[in-house]
């Protein structure tokens, strides 16, 4: 099924929940079929499906949260991320990679959706800024600034685990 | 360019979204400013980690079945024992294109992607022998004579170019074999190193930086003024760089950070 893995990947990191992610992907295909006449063959199917998925996510899970403050995203999350061991688990690279992936996923979860979505699209989905801007219905400049801000947040959250040093003098 | 201006552009440089003028200007600044260079390297490393994390997450198998059995997508399923043709006749005209589109999505497109000729970037295709070598399925002529390996590989390409011939004894790796691969008519020299440090493949072939996979993360080394491209396939990490018209790829299961540092230490500016 075309782009299923990518859609699930984006949905999982948007919704932060496996069941919601599966439901989002399934509904994406339903909506895509219902709106198939709006798709121009030969254009970017991946971006079209991802836009449907993001709109669906926003409609279902974000609309009611629109006025929730995201001033202090770190304060909103208190999951097991904080309780993971900080030390390197060992020399085995596979173990290290799994640990790192878990930490990256946990760090992404803590980033507000408006900064997280561009990261998911550009870094995980290999979308260009123009494609991400189209999917998220915002200007390209916004994608660039939100990516920059989102990655800085991710770096802060990951710093204790992967040795990325915080850039104090340039953090906004 | 000031540091503040550079910081504004670093994200776009990493994502290869800068124009030539801004890119050159920023790269010049990075070659002179260690603070901004560190910021660039950290953000590049972060992007690579996020990419690798994404690649580890795939849709669960039962989701595919769930979608395929969704009556809203495939309305003909599980309704009655009527023949399938009966569903088409009474179907409202509007629904027919929907069914056609569903079938296209479910069958035709995957089939198209599956059967279409593989246009995999040469750098990714080149990594394929790594697993086969580890499983002992790759027939290679083993020798511990470095000169013999270099000589045989050079001879295989008529002396047009040479394998890199890196000395990796500091990494507890020594050359054990060499082989020549041909992908899309291009010859690739492969020197295989093994030892306490694990296994490392060093690929050499004629090409350009365009041979790096589009998904690779680019790292600019300001000291050597060279680009390094990091990418993975399966559990194998790889780093590509260019020396003149020669492309070199180091591939190993060692962590990407170590492999990148190794490639940077061995690379010679053109």
How would you describe the overall organization of this protein?
- The complex is a heterodimer of chains A (about 170) and B (about 270).
- Chain A is mainly alpha-helical.
- Chain A has 2 domains: about 1-65, Rna Polymerase Sigma Factor, Chain: A (Orthogonal Bundle), CATH 1.10.1740.10; about 75-170, Orthogonal Bundle (Arc Repressor Mutant, subunit A).
- Helix content of chain A is about 65%, strand content about 0%.
- In chain A, helix 3 (about 45-60) packs across helix 7 and helix 6 crosses helix 7.
- Chain A starts with a helix and ends in a 10-residue tail after the last helix.
- Chain B has about 270 residues and is an alpha+beta fold.
- Chain B folds into 3 domains: about 5-55; about 65-115; about 120-265, 3-Layer(aba) Sandwich (Protein Transport Mog1p, Chain A), CATH 3.40.1000.
- An 8-stranded antiparallel beta sheet of chain B has the order 1-2-3-4-8-7-6-5, sandwiched between helices.
- In chain B, strand 6 (about 225-235) and strand 7 form a beta hairpin.
- The relative contact order of chain B is 0.10.
- At the A-B interface, helix 1, helix 2, helix 5, helix 6 and helix 8 of A face helix 1, helix 3, helix 4 and helix 6 of B.
């Amino acid at each position: 099924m075309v782009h299923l893995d990518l859609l699930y990947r984006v949905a999982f990191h948007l919704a932060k929940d496996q069941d919601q992610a599966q439901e989002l992907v399934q509904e994406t295909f339903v909506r895509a079929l219902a709106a198939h006449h709006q798709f121009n063959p030969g254009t970017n199917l991946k971006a079209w499906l991802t836009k449907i998925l993001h709109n669906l996510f926003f409609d279902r899970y974000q609309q009611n949260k629109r006025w929730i403050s995201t001033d202090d995203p770190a304060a909103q999350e208190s999951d097991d991320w904080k309780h993971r061991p900080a030390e390197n688990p060992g020399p085995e690279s596979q173990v290290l990679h799994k640990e790192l992936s878990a930490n990256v996923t946990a760090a992404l979860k803590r980033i507000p959706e408006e900064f997280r979505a561009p990261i998911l699209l550009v870094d995980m989905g290999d979308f260009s800024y123009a494609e991400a801007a189209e999917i998220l219905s915002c200007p390209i400049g916004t994608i660039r600034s939100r990516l920059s801000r989102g990655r800085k947040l991710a770096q802060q959250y990951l710093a204790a685990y992967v040795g990325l040093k915080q850039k104090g003098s340039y953090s906004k | 360019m000031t540091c503040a201006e550079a910081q504004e552009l670093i994200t776009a440089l990493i994502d290869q979204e800068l124009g030539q003028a801004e890119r050159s200007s920023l790269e010049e600044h990075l070659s002179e400013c260690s603070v901004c260079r560190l910021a660039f390297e950290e953000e590049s490393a972060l992007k690579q980690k996020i990419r690798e994390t994404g690649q580890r997450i795939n849709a669960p198998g039962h989701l595919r079945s769930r979608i395929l059995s969704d009556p809203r997508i495939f309305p003909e399923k599980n309704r009655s024992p009527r023949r399938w043709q009966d569903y088409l006749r009474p179907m409202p005209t509007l629904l027919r294109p929907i069914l056609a589109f569903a079938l296209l999505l479910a069958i035709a497109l995957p089939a198209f992607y599956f059967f279409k000729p593989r246009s995999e970037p040469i750098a990714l295709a080149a990594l394929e022998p790594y697993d086969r070598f580890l499983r002992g399925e790759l027939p290679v002529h083993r020798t511990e004579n470095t000169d013999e390996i270099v000589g045989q590989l050079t001879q295989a390409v008529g002396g047009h170019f040479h394998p890199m011939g890196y000395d990796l004894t500091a990494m507890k790796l020594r050359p054990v074999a060499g082989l020549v691969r041909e992908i899309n008519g291009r010859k690739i020299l492969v020197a295989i190193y093994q030892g306490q440090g694990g296994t490392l493949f060093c690929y050499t072939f004629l090409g350009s930086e365009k041979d790096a996979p589009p998904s690779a993360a680019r790292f600019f080394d300001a000291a050597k003024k060279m680009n390094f491209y990091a990418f993975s396939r399966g559990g194998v990490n790889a780093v590509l760089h260019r020396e003149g018209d020669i492309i070199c790829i180091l591939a190993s299961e060692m962590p990407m950070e170590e492999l990148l540092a190794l490639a940077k230490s061995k690379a010679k500016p053109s």
